[in-house]
């Protein structure tokens, strides 16, 4: 399949003052026959969601943007988009918030951007299909520019809190550019090895002992790398490799 080439500022932006979920809207548009990439951007989401339907708090002043991608790659490669998007989001934050200290800006497997140990942003990649049954994807970004929730089981943070106030539109502009660059590098999956290498450079806890919850089971091991589908490769103390696929774990640094 010939990969599409992407160019920044050419993807139309569709704006909503308020919407349930930009990802839900994107999937709906694909199923209705949307044939060209588009950004769906909302000021507020009333049913923002994360993985497995978990809620994503979506207050005015943060960025909620979904990139709709009809037919971006063979279906087997779509899970890689999570890492393409993670790198692009990191690039965009670096560009749009130059005051930020970058050494604590890390990608957390599989789909979060962390800043100084707090969750700054989440990415939700969902697969769908177009009206001809071809694979399609939506990539949702929720970025805490101004607000972050309190009282979660872990720390959340915002660019505002980090002393790098950034308008959602400035971040969107940088993200549009960064996504075009990273999607072209990915090249429908042919370029995933270089995406993978760069993602690991900025990954949280790579090389460290981590605990991973897989349903009711908890596995502890050294986070060695991600494989060519984006699965996490853990080395247990007994030397056995454990492959953890995206979508069913939460990662916590191991405290001995
Ligand atoms: P994790 O990566 O933290 O193990 P997850 O990947 O399942 O969890 P997501 O699907 O990215 O999490 O997002 C949903 C979760 O994120 C919610 O359950 C909530 O705990 C947290 N959350 C919701 N809104 C925000 C926000 N604005 N900023 C940071 N975290 C949030």
Automatic annotation (TrEMBL):
Reaction(s) the record says it catalyses: biotin + L-lysyl-[protein] + ATP = N(6)-biotinyl-L-lysyl-[protein] + AMP + diphosphate + H(+)
Pfam families per UniProt: BPL_C (PF02237), BPL_LplA_LipB (PF03099)
Domain of life: Bacteria
Record GO cellular component, one term: cytoplasm
Entries under PROSITE patterns matching the protein: BPL_LPL_CATALYTIC
Gene3D superfamilies per UniProt: 2.30.30.100, Bira Bifunctional Protein, Domain 2
InterPro entries named in the record: aa-tRNA-synth_II/BPL/LPL, Biotin_CoA_COase_ligase, BPL_C, BPL_LPL_catalytic, Transcriptional_repressor_C
UniProt domain BPL/LPL catalytic: residue ranges: 8-187
Transmembrane segments: none
Any GO molecular function: ATP binding
Enzyme class at the top of the EC tree: ligase
Enzyme Commission numbers on file: 6.3.4.15
Keyword flag Ligase: yes
UniProt KW keywords: ATP-binding, Biotin, Ligase, Nucleotide-binding
PANTHER family cross-referenced by the UniProt entry: BIOTIN PROTEIN LIGASE (PTHR12835), BIOTIN--PROTEIN LIGASE (PTHR12835:SF5)
Name this polypeptide is given: biotin--[biotin carboxyl-carrier protein] ligase
Organism of derivation: Azorhizobium oxalatiphilum
This protein's encoding gene: birA
